[in-house]
């Protein structure tokens, strides 16, 4: 079973790129972030014609998340991260597909630091940690994936000294991510590639992609029930080189089917 996450940076503007990648890569499940489309403007028909069932939580101009499943049923469990009834951002959606519980998330960027956006990011991380612990307590297979806007270590960023004051790399954010991991989650990419420099995002400016000046901020966190089923993982970085593409590349894992 191949599961992917992809920050599309505008699902309608990047629709040709998304459909091309879906046709070539044929993932079974895809979590999308940064749809930048209100609920009624999501390109549902095009996605379904590509062979995918889909649920989504849109928002005008900003945010937005979706889960696609190729010829598989989607059982939705919620589209709001618990913990703040006043939070109106479309940043989380959760479903079960093929007996795997999947949370698709778009964590706040948090810049500038300090400020209310950074405070919101830290609170969102705490809410995520609380919900993640509840999911672990269920003792079921769970994946929490998406654009975390967190650079976990210096290995995950080109020239880390340039990022020390950025909300993606601040010590408070990295510590919150580390605390989340210690609940019992496994970073799928680092499980298979513990020491390799792997990026998932390259800025549009200063020829970042051409220079490979990237970041790893799109992550797959696996519950203990899934770690032994992990057989492959990677980044389709070539998609970042296509015309009119997102500044993120799709990230994917493959899980061994249960006997």
UniProtKB/TrEMBL annotation:
Belongs to the DNA repair enzymes AP/ExoA family. Its cofactor is Mg(2+). The lineage of its organism: Bacteria, Pseudomonadati, Bacteroidota, Sphingobacteriia, Sphingobacteriales. It comes from Olivibacter oleidegradans. NCBIfam families: exoDNase_III (TIGR00195), xth (TIGR00633). InterPro entries: AP_endonuc_1, AP_endonuclease_F1_BS, Endo/exonu/phosph_ase_sf, Endo/exonuclease/phosphatase, ExoIII-like. GO terms for molecular function: double-stranded DNA 3'-5' DNA exonuclease activity. Gene3D superfamilies: Endonuclease/exonuclease/phosphatase (3.60.10.10). Its EC number is 3.1.11.2. It is an enzyme of class 3 (hydrolase). This is Exodeoxyribonuclease III.
